[in-house]
Amino acid sequence: MRLCLKHIQTKSEAQMKILVEEKIKEQKALRETAMAQRKERRDLLTGRSFDLCCRLCGAFICKSSDMRVACDSQYVCCDPTIWQRIETRVHSNSKALSIATLVGKPYCKGTKECVCNEVLGTIVRLYGAFLPTISAKAIVVDDKDERGRMKDEKKWETISREKFFIEPITERDLVCFRDINVSSRFFFLCFCSCLKFAVGERC
After folding, report:
1. Where are the domains of the chain?
2. Closest Cα to residue 145, out of 163, 130, 157, 129?
3. Which of 56, 128, 117 is nearest to 85 (CA)?
4. Signal peptide span per the entry (predicted)?
5. Global pTM?
6. What confidence category does residue 72 fall into, taking pLDDT thresholds of 50, 70 and 90?
């Protein structure tokens, strides 16, 4: 900001125009580079699919192909059957975030052999649909190494760069989850009640 003010005070209009044009070109080049890298990564990882399992008990959570990214930071599972494998609990301190409203948490139900209750992430209302986000720290990718151990990564950025490509969420994904949410009336009303508490408006 200070540098910008200094330029305004010391540069002529023509010089400022050149600086602005250079900055626009620089930003465009950065965007094009990022897009090229994204396409290269997508081409490289297309078709790769893994089971994502609970870090604590090993229970199946979802397929990697069912993961989506929303707003560059929310990694959500878009498999409607995930509700059968998790227990949902409403947040007592729900709050509105910049791009979504946090309304609860999903817990792993575990396996036939054990009850787990590991927190898998959060449940958010995003674009009108209730969606479970999955924390990279809560899961392991079933991509066993030569010793038969599952790979344990801590960040989605690393997983999506090295293991499989995560597509952006689509309107089709959201419509599917909106329909599921509404069809489960009790589930829908619980989270809507929590949503009204968080943002102070009707759901």
Report:
1. 1-45, 51-199
2. 163
3. 117
4. none
5. 0.69
6. confident
